[in-house]
UniProtKB/TrEMBL annotation, chains A, B:
Start and end residues of each ACT domain: 268-353
UniProt protein name: Aspartokinase
Native organism: Thermobifida alba (Thermomonospora alba)
A molecular function (GO) term: aspartate kinase activity
Entry keyword set: Amino-acid biosynthesis, ATP-binding, Diaminopimelate biosynthesis, Kinase, Lysine biosynthesis, Nucleotide-binding, Transferase
Keyword Endoplasmic reticulum: no
Catalyzed chemical reaction(s): L-aspartate + ATP = 4-phospho-L-aspartate + ADP
SUPFAM superfamilies: ACT-like, Carbamate kinase-like
UniProt enzyme class: transferase
Species classification: Bacteria, Bacillati, Actinomycetota, Actinomycetes, Streptosporangiales
Length: 423, 423
């Protein structure tokens, strides 16, 4: 029998009414003949409320206990979803991450999945039950303590279970209609992308598109699990994330799939780094030791007169203070002159597998941005992505300019012929 | 090292401030050199809120899922208590019932503890940590599903852990100062009982005193665990529940320990039961099959003219409807005439090991009640208890009359010499 794994986010199970609506969706798939495994997040604001309680009790709660606390959230939502399904006449059983066999590392708050051994899920499916699994959580291999998976954890749980159960598809339900060519709050004419490749989706996620987390897409690509991103509030077709977007389906691959943006990064410039072998390595080793994820890196050509160079990089702005502290520690050893910090930046990225075969995309992108009078501060590229850093206030205009330039607006859509809207 | 098991009820951990106060109490015992294991209930209204959510989703939620839902409550409180202790510089680790080795039957909502295998608790104690354990919950031996223990479950968890860990004492923290000679809301001059035997406490609990649940006291008696009932809001000495209240400590055993009352019962009279062998058995078998707990039973002498008799019994009034239904099913077979139902009754019980050696207690009790013009409807006695059933509106007056008659009022206390207030 075909198996579907569904994941519902916090907004999809925000209250009793939402839980009942989700239960009807789940039962509809069961009625259609599928085995169904459902991964749920905590209801709406539960996690924030629990974090608030923790803060009132302790300014720096131990990770083990914070994980114990937060996992209460999914426990509540999964039991309620199971009850609502029972009320529709179908049997549902809820399972914690630990009961579902989600084995993780011991890093509380940001554990990684090591293995998934869903023996109890398989048994329950074989007995005809619908399985409801707590997202975002697991049990550590070493200490058998409860862990949480950090950001994107529920999506990752769903994909990992889909892989372990050899599911036919993993449906990610959310509060938007799918993946869009740009954030519709910035570009009202943005369109839903019916189908996108794992690679493009990875670049979208890494470039600030919040709909799917990087880890989840990476996991899906590694195990070849088709993802179907759609709204739990309507029956619209959503977005498929698959291994290859075939051009044979009468579908002409658009040059650009979408425009992503990210305002959460900051830029640090290390000024006057002596132009000697190994200095850049020392800087990035210090950052790695402090567990800071560096994104874009730009090194200027050194001024011949000084034999010194500037190195700029971007990083999540909430890592800013610890990065500056880590760098100050090695200032004397490396011998750089000073540090500059700017968190008023934004990143705008153009993503599309089509740009592989269309030269000139970079030039058109930069030109479109320049026509808006926007200055480009940093540039980084991959085979299917071009990212630029601009002033934070210029992000919206840059996104809109790029979106329009590559004919992604809905009123330009006739120019691009898409294939089917699903599979 | 001496080991203390403490249990804090929902009102003792009702909010962040209460959690911090409890943490200080726990740390004080640790500082005093004890190993400490703490059992916590869900915070204040959490259980009611979760039940309300369940009701919104399903009118009759499956027991398995209701247990999964409700156990989120203790998960939250235990993590918060552990965090608050960590904030005071001591290591605390929280454990679910399952992690603490509380193995139960599979009866969701009212599971019984089969075994306690607290291996992880012992390890954590050996490493110097304070252990925080979720009360009210366990894991079923057969299906490995999460269960709850029903009423009094957290107290029972604490006593069961104390027995399995061979603890020196089990402290039950609550929002009152201990066990009183009567409910202080009815008898303002009621006094705290400094020390009481398991047997008397069992009779108190069975007679409606709500401070300790019957199961918890039974468990403590079976394993000889001294219970210390006290308030988490002050440092008052509370009440000790122990195997024997020695008369050797310069303490004269009072005749009566206390007066308990219970308004939660109803009375059913089976009218005109044929006076044949086995008819009463048939009636009570039907009730037992419907899992109804019958309390007091009175059978009238049969009227010689009719060869029929009336049988009256009391039962929890929330079982009233199912009891009537069970009896109606056997009406034709047994051949009784009719059923009478009265839920406007109340039970008043006099409890005291001293009444063993003081004849005339019954007469004094009945006389004191009669002087208030109160009619006695049913009577039942044990070696250390006398219970009467009266009109519900007469309960307060009957309690006050008995309390005064046996010199339990605070202004009469000089007449009775108590021993020490602790151990």
């Amino acid at each position: 029998m075909a198996l579907i794994v569904q994941k519902y986010g916090g907004s999809s199970v925000a209250d009793a009414e939402a839980v009942k609506r989700v239960a009807q969706r789940i039962v509809a798939q069961k009625k259609a003949g599928y085995d169904v495994v459902v991964v749920v997040s905590a209801m709406g604001d539960t996690t924030d409320e629990l974090l608030d309680l923790a803060e009132q009790v302790s300014p720096l709660p131990p990770g083990r206990e914070l994980d114990m606390l937060l996992t209460a959230g999914e426990r509540i939502s999964m039991a309620l979803v199971a009850m609502a399904i029972g009320n529709l006449g179908y049997e549902a059983r809820s399972f914690t991450g630990s009961q579902a066999g989600v084995i993780t590392t011991s890093l509380h708050g940001n554990a990684k999945i090591i293995d998934v051994t869903p023996g109890r899920i398989k048994d329950a499916l074989a007995e005809g039950a619908i399985c409801i699994v707590a997202g975002f959580q697991g049990v550590s291999q070493d200490s058998k303590d409860i862990t949480t998976l950090g950001r994107g954890g529920s999506d990752t749980t769903a994909v990992a279970l889909a892989a372990a159960l050899n599911a036919d598809v993993c449906e990610i339900y959310t509060d938007v209609d799918g993946v869009f060519t740009a954030d519709p709050r910035i570009v009202p004419s943005a369109r839903r992308i019916p189908k996108i490749s794992y690679e493009e989706m990875l670049e979208m996620a890494a470039s600030g598109a919040k709909i799917l987390h990087l880890r989840c897409v990476e996991y899906a690509r590694r195990y070849g699990i088709p993802l179907h991103v759609r709204s739990s509030f309507n029956q619209k077709p959503g977005t498929w994330v698959v291994s290859e977007v075939e051009e044979t389906e009468g579908m002409e691959q658009p040059i650009i799939s979408g425009v992503a943006h990210d305002r959460s990064e900051a830029k640090i410039t290390v000024v006057g780094v002596p132009d000697r072998v190994g200095e850049a390595a020392a800087i990035f080793k210090a950052l790695a030791d402090a567990e800071i994820n560096v994104d874009m890196i730009v090194q200027n050509v050194s001024a011949a007169s000084t034999s010194r160079t500037d190195i700029s990089f971007t990083l999540p702005s909430d890592s800013g203070q610890s990065a500056l502290a880590a760098l100050k520690k090695i200032q004397d050893k490396v011998g750089f002159e000073s540090l500059l910090y700017n968190d008023r930046i934004g990143k705008v990225s153009l993503i599309g597998a089509g740009m592989r075969s269309y030269p000139g995309v970079t030039a058109r992108f930069f030109d479109a941005v320049a026509r808006q009078g926007i200055n480009i501060d940093m540039i980084s590229t991959s085979e299917i992505r071009i990212s630029i850093v601009v002033e934070q206030d210029d992000v919206d205009a840059a996104v809109a300019a790029a979106h329009s330039e590559f004919q992604l607006d809905a009123d330009q859509v006739e120019a691009v012929v898409y294939g089917g809207t699903g599979r």
